[in-house]
Amino acid sequence: MKIYTRTGDEGLTSVIGARVVKDDVRVEAYGTIDELNSIVGQAVAVIARDNAGEWDDLLQQLLTIQHELFDCGSDLSYAKLDPAKMKVNSEMVTQLEAWIDEYEAQTPPITRFILPGGSEQAAIVHLCRTVCRRAERRVVTLAAEQPSPEPVRQYLNRLSDYFFTVARVANARQGIQDVEYERGAHVFGRRT
């Protein structure tokens, strides 16, 4: 099978059930999810490079997330929704919430906005978070214009929270403090 088909040379591409322009809002949405998946792959490479077992939990979760991001793209690729073929579900969102709760317990209380960065691991996960937010915005735009599966939007919303928490855990596990936004007020309540 050849990797090139020449079918897109005129600026069109296929989604399941239609031919659309390559900058169609649906293509933009799942294309941004594909971009996010690539950055998650880069995060896996960065985190695995120095792993001596302390990152095994995170690496396994990120691999799961990469598969789930493919599921998100698959669900968005249908021009007409077919609930029987959708892969993203509420259990995936619930799993992200459980991971967030577990990791949040490993981080110091937060009272201010924090700057992305700290360790290399945290910095790349913050990049995942920001691209995830962009993917979510693209899915919201799609939903306003065309049918789209709601669980994908919910999943992306929770996934960005997961990335935020994991970035903080990456710093905490290495004894690196998050850098607070110094001109910001105390906007978060203290955890109990």
Characteristic terms for this protein:
192 residues, mainly alpha, Hypothetical Protein Ta1238, Chain: A, two-stranded antiparallel ribbon, 5 helices, 6% strand, elongated, PduO-typ, Corrinoid adenosyltransferase, EC 2.5.1.17
Account of the 3D structure:
It is built from five helices and four strands; from the N terminus they run ββαααβααβ. With 192 residues, it is mostly helical. It has one domain (12-180): Cobalamin adenosyltransferase-like (Hypothetical Protein Ta1238, Chain: A, Up-down Bundle). It is elongated.
Report the average pLDDT across residues.
90
Strand line-up of the largest beta sheet: 1-2
Q: Radius of gyration, Cα only, in angstroms?
A: 18 Å
Strand fraction equals 5-15%
Low-confidence stretches: none
Specify the structural class. Answer: mainly alpha
Distance from N terminus to C terminus (CA atoms, Å) equals 58 Å
In total, the number of strands is 4
CATH homologous superfamily label: Cobalamin adenosyltransferase-like
Shape type: elongated
The helix content, as a percent range, equals 55-70%
